[in-house]
Amino acid sequence: MGRFAATLVGSLFGLGLLLCGLGRLASAEPRAPPEKIAIVGAGIGGTSSAYYLRKKFGKDVKIDVFEREEIGGRLATLKVQGHDYEAGGSVIHPLNLHMKRFVKELAPSSVLAGLSSVPASGGLVGVYNGKSLVFEESSWFIINVIKLVWRYGFQSLRMHMWVEDLLDKFMRIYRYQSHDYAFSSVEKLMYAIGGDDYVRLLNQTLRENLKKAGFSETFLNEMIAPVMKVNFGQSTDLNAFVGAVSMTAADSNLWAVEGGNKVVCSGLLQASNSNLISGSVMSIEKTRTKQTGTPPKMYEVVYKTGSEIHSDFYDIVLVAAPLNRKMSNITFRNFDPPIEEFNDPYQQLVTTLIKGELNSTLFSSRHKDQFGLSAILVTDDSDMFINSLSIVASVSHKEGPPPAVDGMHVWKTFSKDILTKEQISKLFLSYDYAVRKPWLSYPYYNPPQKCPSIILHDRLYYLNGIEFAASCMEMSAIAGYNAALLAYHRWNGNEDMIDQDDLYEKLKTEL
Ligand SMILES: Cc1cc2nc3c(=O)[nH]c(=O)nc-3n(C[C@H](O)[C@H](O)[C@H](O)COP(=O)(O)OP(=O)(O)OC[C@H]3O[C@@H](n4cnc5c(N)ncnc54)[C@H](O)[C@@H]3O)c2cc1C
Ligand SMILES: *[C@@H]1O[C@H](CO)[C@@H](O)[C@H](O)[C@H]1NC(C)=O
Ligand SMILES: *[C@@H]1O[C@H](CO)[C@@H](O)[C@H](O)[C@H]1NC(C)=O
Ligand SMILES: *[C@@H]1O[C@H](CO)[C@@H](O)[C@H](O)[C@H]1NC(C)=O
Q1: How do the residues of the chain divide into helix, strand and coil, expressed in percent and rounded to 5?
Q2: Minimum-distance ligand to the CA of 451?
Q3: Residue 459 pLDDT > 50
Q4: Of the candidates 232, 261, 226, which has an alpha carbon nearest to the alpha carbon of residue 246?
Q5: Ligand 3: distance of its center to the CA of 38 in Å?
Q6: Are strands 62-67 and 36-40 parallel, antiparallel or unpaired?
Q7: Which of 296, 346, 301, 298 is nearest to 326 (CA)?
Q8: Which comes out higher in pLDDT, residue 333 or 27?
Q9: Is 329 buried (19+), middle (13-18) or exposed (0-12) by CB count in 10 A?
Q10: Residues near 225 by Cβ (< 8 Å), separated by ≥ 6?
């Protein structure tokens, strides 16, 4: 209630700022724009950078976006009996202003049909410890409050305030970006948002941070760890910032894009008037060979389409895919000093969609007609082979999951390994259909951990280091915008727009 109003005011305020920001796009006298820019990866990071690069550099620059699989990357759907369901990034927070803005701005182009709320966030949640449900949400708000206070004192309220405070500061990034300010590293971006305290969130585990703040072991194990597990496949050993991001996914009013979140990526690609190249980038090389035409381009991108190998020259290159051998597998050549090998580990995670009737007696002795939970989270010591289990609605369903036919629902599970038939049969009394998608999903968080650099070379930028602060759609969009601004300001020598101190104070008076 109060929360909803606050959210609404916050969003209107944010959008207002974005609009104001657009008014002053052309400040300094820019030099001639670059001729060609390459972006590797057509996920939300790559496509949002294409969108902002076009806004900054204007209509003449040629933007090539390389994608070796599908547009959307980790935003993808799976089909169950003719309906599409989100298999990767699925929920968006009401204060994710970039995602919100994309949908709003792209909607008229008819690529995007509109929004739909994510009904899963409205369903009742239970937490299972391997023997019984240690927490079970009720449809009565007041009962939930009593249960929470009874079991954990006022810790859930304090937790809520802890997250709110961090989120409140986080909103500053939108103001900085709408005024065109860029950051040359993730740490500097985090510092601009909330000073040393904010940078320190990356250096501490969530557990350390919350224990210091006086949260109890029981609360951490029963309430916080299960939320970390469903959102980031890890326990409270991840960094405190991604922990806070993960907690916001427990807020209300979460939403998703009708037709699938990935349509935002195709929309951005189209709006940016970029050229999509379906191919796999193998290497990025600092050019040594003499080129015809002036001025010479700095980088050569070598890529494969089918079995053919091609290459092309670019003034600026953005890498918008995780840099490691198992994922993007890009080699950097002729750089002096050499560009470091990235070996940051990403977690293996499997999404499985199952249409079936849950064996609810596995979790509760209650009769199945009275079970009523639509999401089950698990504690660390539950010894379960899944990280979570929840009823999901298809991407084109505005009203939420359809009523169950014979107790059948489409359930989504995340697990570390591929589920065996036996495991699925253990969870379900019966099932019609199962489909899965394995991912290298998000970083394995191991604080203290340095975020990979954004500037790899003069005009070579890397977006996905931001995932080591937190991996989600909005963070990739922020990284995409930041990289576009950084590339633009560095091209034009606008040093005064990069890594500025005291931005918050400076912009306070400018409003
Ligand atoms: C199971 C799961 C659930 C998630 N849930 C949520 C959620 O609810 N909410 C949320 O906000 N976030 C969620 N996330 C995280 C979110 O999906 C990601 O943070 C975000 O989509 C990352 O976008 P990106 O553009 O940075 O990277 P990606 O989407 O990975 O895009 C990189 C692209 O680059 C391409 N590529 C890689 N190498 C090359 C190459 N050499 N040549 C050409 N192309 C290449 C890839 O094919 C890919 O399409 C989830 C992720 C997963 C896996
Ligand atoms: C965080 O840790 C890094 C080293 O991992 C250190 O350089 C930095 O000063 C730390 N920052 C804060 C704010 O504690
Ligand atoms: C990475 O690319 C090289 C060729 O560029 C190839 O030989 C190797 O098998 C690839 N590695 C993976 C894990 O795909
Ligand atoms: C459902 O799970 C319970 C508890 O594990 C088990 O005893 C029962 O046999 C299962 N029912 C079916 C039909 O598999």
Answers
A1: 40, 25, 35
A2: 2
A3: yes
A4: 232
A5: 21
A6: parallel
A7: 346
A8: 333
A9: middle
A10: 235, 236, 379, 380
The mean pLDDT of 199-213, rounded to a whole number, is 96
Using alpha carbons only, give the angle 196, 197, 199 rounded to the nearest 5 degrees.
60
Q: Give the pLDDT band of residue 290 (cuts 50, 70, 90).
A: low
CA of 353 to the centre of ligand 2 (A): 41
- This prediction has a pTM of 0.92
DSSP state for residue 381 in the 8-state scheme? G
Mutation to probe ligand 3, out of 285, 309, 329, 346 (largest number of atoms < 8 A from CB): 329
3-state secondary structure 471-495: CCHHHHHHHHHHHHHHHHHHHHCCH
Return d(Cα 43, Cα 301) in angstroms, integer: 19
CB of 88 closer than 6 A to ligand 1? yes
Q: Which atom of ligand 3 is nearest to the CA of 326?
A: 13
Q: What is the pLDDT of residues 386-404, one digit of tens each?
A: 999 999 989 886 555 666 6
Of 251 and 65, more confident: 65
For 131, the 3-state DSSP assignment is coil
The 10s digit of each residue's pLDDT in 294-347 is 668 899 999 999 999 999 999 999 999 999 999 999 999 999 999 988 888 999
Mean pLDDT (the chain, rounded): 89
Q: Which atom of ligand 1 is nearest to the CA of 73?
A: 49
What confidence score (pLDDT) does residue 377 get? 96
In whole angstroms, how far apart are CA 212 and each of 207, 215, 216, 431? Answer: 8, 7, 10, 46
Q: Could you give the C-alpha distances from 13 to 97, 105, 174, 274, 294, in angstroms and in order? A: 10, 17, 10, 31, 46
Q: What are phi and psi of 341, to 5 degrees?
A: -75, 130
* Rounded distance between C-alpha atoms, residue 102 and residue 268, angstroms: 8
Q: Residue 113: pLDDT above 70?
A: no
Q: What are phi and psi of 446, to 5 degrees?
A: -145, 70
Q: What are phi and psi of 420, to 5 degrees?
A: -85, 165
DSSP class of 379: -
Lowest-confidence segment of 292-296, 419-423, 456-460 by average pLDDT: 292-296
Token reading at 365: 């002795």
DSSP class per residue in 288-332:
-S--SSSSPPSEEEEEEETTEEEEEEESEEEE-S--STTTT-PEE
- pLDDT at res. 402: 65
Question: What's the rounded Cα separation, in Å, for the pair 54 and 63?
Answer: 8
Per the DSSP assignment, residues forming a β-bridge with 85 are 78
